[in-house]
Structures are given as structure tokens and as C-alpha cells.
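Budget justification, computational time. The allocation requested in the original proposal was used primarily to generate C-alpha cells for proteins on the priority list. As evidence of use, we reproduce two of the resulting records. The first is shown immediately below.
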Amino acid sequence: MKVKAKKYLGQHFLTDLNIASKIADTLSYKGYAKTLEIGPGMGVLTQFLLQKDTETHVIEIDKESVAYLQDHYSDLASRIIQADFLKLDVQHYFPNTQFAVIGNFPYNISTQIVFKVLENKTQIPEFSGMFQKEVAQRIAAGPGSKVYGILSVLSQAFYEVSYLFTVPPQVFNPPPKVDSGVIKLVRKKDFTLPVDEKIFYQVVKTAFNQRRKTLRNSLKSFYLSQKLREDSIFAKRPEQLGVSEFISLSLTIVQDSQA
């Protein structure tokens, strides 16, 4: 008996085994012993992960899918987490452990999944999977792109991001109305910032929340000194700044506030 896709969970089950195999191949399986798949559904991707040199764990919120996995993947049964990834206590399940994250992510929570991974980046060296194409492109976008934004800068501050390939709607059941995109994130060797992360996040989010304005206007809430406001960087708009420039800008704002 197959699992019926549930609209409220954003389920679109991948049916193409070749694509599932390609997604499983996106991880290197080096430097960590465990892999966590989010939203395995009926295990189309899971079956290929189980062939890799890693201890595969899955997290699934749908009771019907959990029952299906328990029936069809008995060896996996003890490593099925029936829970919401967004609420997962990572330390409880993977205490001080490095693990990769992979999946065909539900479109309705995919952005939140990225932020959850970023929160736990010290334990997640690799992260790959399928998103709505528009979201995948946004994560991988560089400065100057119309879709470059908060998600792009925050992801690329800590990870190297690669857009790998596009997936058409007809390989899903039910087919979504849009294309999908598979991306891969590999954590940088040095993923620590020279500035407080909370400040960095605040600067990036504040700047892009008013992306049509220059930084001089969008960052008014930081009470910049007149001298700093005259710096040429503040005549730019946020989409013109690369990740390193946002880091430098955040550091400068902190130093200015302490002067």
C-alpha cells in the first residue's frame, strides 16, 4: 500500500529512481559517520542512501509514511525519528556528532530547513537536496542578481553553495506546478565570523528588508555616526554587496557603536 501525498504537508513524492540516485550521490560521505534524511516519504531516496558508507537516519512527521518505512525498511526502523525537523533537538539525537543533511524538502518549509541547518552548522558539514527551483536559485545566487538576498548571504557566509541540476514536475506524484532544483552546501573550512553572528544576521536582514533603499537609509536603526554614514559603501544597495563585504560592514558598525 502506497502513501497518499498530503497537501498540508507539502508532499510531492519523487518517482524517478535515476534522479533519486543522483541526489544520493551529491554528498561526499567523508568526515562524518551519519546522514539525516528529512521527509523520506516512501523511501525513494532512502534506498540509495542505505547503500552508502554512512549510518542513515530519517526524520518524518507523517505517521502514514513512518508506518510504510517501518514495513519496507526493517533495518532502518530503529533510526526513524517521527518528529518535525524544525523542532528537533539536534543535540539529543546527535550529541556532539558530525552528520550530513539531505532530502527532497517540502516546499512549504524549505527555507526554514535552511535556517535550522545554519543554526546547527557546527555539526553539519554537508547539506544537499531538492528545493523549489526559485528557492534553490536564491540560496546559490551571487551579488547583482535579482534573487540574491538574505538566504543567499547567510548560507554563503558559512557554506560553499553549488546549484547542481534542475528537476521537472513530471517526475513527482502529484506533480508540483513549478520546477525543482538540487543544490549542495559544503561547510567552509573556517566558518567562524570575525563579528558577532547576531549582529551580522541583523545587518543582513535589516538591509534586505528595504532592498530598494541605499544602506545609508535602510540601516538607520543602527544609529551610525555621521562619519561612518559618509563612507561610500552606504551609497550602495544590499544586492551590490558580497558576503565578505557584509561581514566587514557588520564589523565596522560594531566598532562604530563602541567608539
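The second record produced under the same allocation is shown here.
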Amino acid sequence: MHRTVFSTPLINTLLRTFSVIFLRLSGWKVQGNLPAEACKSVLIAAPHTSNWDLPYTLMVAFALRLNVYWMGKEQLFRPPFRRLMMWLGGIPIAREKASNVVAASVLAIAQVDGPVQLIVPPEGTRDKTRYWKTGFYYIALGAQVPIVMAYMDYQKKVSGLGPVFAPSGDLAADMASIKAFYASFKGKNADQFHAE
């Protein structure tokens, strides 16, 4: 995986300090921590209903001292912003060519020597949707890493890391458990999120 702001020592420290102060002053609480067994993991990013989710997610990642990469639609990576988005940990996804994203992600996680957390929004869009994509699940299963249930609740102004979930291979049962955890969270545009 490519070099990011999270692996740039001095800038990482400065941005962590800024993030902690900004989140505190704006009334946000950051909860949880990343257990050692999840140093390599897939993080669910839910609810995902607004463009504001990305900057808040990055600030929470700094506050929790994570080493994250995140998937975003290819349009976010157009010039002149491509280099910046990549440096912020972005991985461009061409939705119309997304058939090998799972296999490429599994390989990328396996090749990383050290901690890495791949953030995947299960809705696949900020728009209203009732169905979650299952790519995050199959990436974790294929890479043999746990899923960390990360959350951002705009109503309570709380964000962080929830339970660590080991995918069993029973997609229906596992998705029911995962979605049950997210049922109470409210995105910035709450009417666009359904954990069902």
C-alpha cells in the first residue's frame, strides 16, 4: 500500500493534536481502541450519509492512532486532488470495474508488514440505500482478518471503535449480527441510513 499521512511522522503528530482538539471543542467524544489482534483489520464505516463523514473519520483515526486506508469512488481522485486524496489514505474504486476489488484488497492487506486498517463503507454510497454491499465482509474473510465495527453517531456526537467481529463464513447470520449493532446509530442525514 502507498505512503500516507498516517505514516508520515511529524505531520501525523501535528494532525493528531489538531484532531483531538477540534473534536473536543466541537463536542465530539471518541470511544474505544484497537486491540492488538485487530492491528490488521477491516473497519466498517457506518452510517455513511454525508461528505462530512470523511474528514470526521480521518480525525477520529488520528485520535485513535490508527493507520487507515479508505475506499472511495474514483471521481474523488480526479486532478488536481488525486495526490492529496491518496496521501490521506484513499484508494480509488471504479464502481463499474469493481469486480476484482475484493481480491486486490485481500492481497494488499496480506502484503503489508505491520498494522493496517482498511475502512469500507458498507452502503457503498452516501445516498439513501436499504442494502449493504458485502465487499467488506469478503475482504476480511479472504485476508483472514477481523472486522472492527467503527461508528459515527451525529445525534450523540460519538464516534469510535466498537466490537471486533470474526467472520464465520455464514454471511446471512453474520450480517444480521453486524447490522443489529448499527441499528441505533444516526448519520448526519439520518433518514438515508437503514441497518436492515
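A brief technical remark on that second record: Residues 73 and 93 are 5 Å apart (CA to CA).
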